[in-house]
Design goal:
Elements: H1 2-16, H2 19-29, H3 34-63, H4 65-76, H5 78-89, H6 93-118, H7 126-147, H8 158-192, H9 203-226, H10 228-235, H11 239-251, H12 253-264, H13 268-293, H14 306-322, H15 330-350
């Protein structure tokens, strides 16, 4: 019975993949209202998240969970980069910064929380987790250099954007060095380990599917973001709240779905790697990359608000405490989800800058 239900669900998800191109076409042709586009695009991200999860799990058979999580994070963060650059070009600097912080907090508290709560208890790669969380902590400390002066005066003044350049370069260099070490370590672990599970898709097919699903996700996400303002207006929410909660969740939809699906299947190690690797990618790669690329559009200062810095601190410390014993627990998931709920309330009442 369960197998039959699984087959039906799988076929339904495959059929729903056609919803992505349909939504993008509706948006481009202006054939539907913004609210309808928002709802349809949100639904279209569900089968895309499943597809990325399938491709990641199949690729991980050949690469190991560490590199599998890295691949998922790399492909899954493409929509966030697109969201950030589009917002920069529109002059929405507060939205960019809030969405980046919301992405990290969402991965480490919301996604990891659901992963631990819905998955079975299992062991994790403690060193890999420490590397990811350490990089987020380092990024938080580095952006203090540009954030503290922004507490007074214009947070987007050019002097802060110029000060952000060396901070971004240092963070990017550290991220590249950490990536090289982590990938070498994961390859060594994979070579020493015996393959587990089944060989599904060929590695090349898995990577091609990951790439195509990411491109489709980027287009759908762009349509969804374009309809967020209408949604926010009707919901009477601040731009800051929409950016740090809604835009961040939308940008991370693929990681959210694939991590939870993998956790439900019992692949807890790969599921936790996805949320941890994704947060490290945002902190160590996406933030400095957006700051550097923004100079070709409108210089972006890495001037985060106190509440954003506090959210980064909570999102780094709590997962470290929850995972300190190298095993996942449902109680740990509840703790992370409760912390995220508390942050959402704080974001709601903080309003715009």
């Amino acid at each position: 019975m369960a197998g039959a239900v699984g087959v039906v669900a799988r076929r339904s998800l495959v059929a729903l993949l056609a919803l992505g191109p349909f939504v993008v076409a509706l948006d481009w042709l202006g054939a539907a209202g913004k609210l309808a586009i928002f709802l349809l695009a949100s639904a279209a991200l569900i089968p895309l998240a499943w597809l990325i999860g399938e491709a990641t799990e199949n690729a991980a058979y050949y690469t190991g969970p560490g590199i599998g999580g890295f691949l998922n994070a790399t492909f899954g963060n493409a929509p966030e980069l697109i969201i950030a650059l589009v917002a920069v070009s529109d002059g929405l600097t507060d939205v960019v910064r809030a969405s980046l912080v919301g992405s990290i907090a969402g991965n480490l508290l919301l996604v990891l929380g659901f992963t631990l709560l819905l998955g079975q208890s299992g062991a994790i790669d403690r060193r890999s987790a420490a590397i990811s969380l350490g990089l987020v902590a380092l990024a938080t400390l580095l952006v203090l250099v540009t954030s503290v002066p922004s507490f007074h005066g214009d947070p987007d003044r050019r002097s802060l954007a110029e000060l952000s350049l060396p901070v971004a370069v240092v963070l990017l260099v550290i991220r590249i060095a950490v990536n090289r070490y982590a990938l070498r370590r994961q390859r060594a672990l994979q070579e020493a380990a015996e393959p587990t599970g089944r060989a599904g898709w060929p590695l090349r097919l898995s990577l091609v599917v990951l790439g195509l699903a990411t491109v489709a996700t980027a287009f759908v996400t762009n349509s969804l973001v374009g309809s967020l303002q209408t949604f926010a207006s009707r919901a009477h929410l601040s731009e800051f709240f929409v950016a740090i909660v809604i835009v961040a969740i939308v940008g991370n939809a693929t990681e959210h779905g694939s991590a939870v699906l993998l956790a439900r299947r019992g692949n807890i190690r790969l599921a936790t790697e996805i949320s941890l690797a994704s947060s490290a990618q945002v902190a160590g790669l996406l933030i400095p990359l957006v700051a550097l690329v923004s100079w070709a559009i409108t210089p972006l200062a890495l001037s985060f608000r106190p509440i954003e810095l506090g959210a980064l601190a909570v999102a780094t410390a709590l997962p470290a405490l929850v995972l300190v014993r190298r095993r996942t627990t449902r109680l740990g998931g509840l703790i992370l989800l409760s912390a995220y709920a508390g942050l959402v309330v704080a974001f709601y009442y903080s309003g715009n800058r």
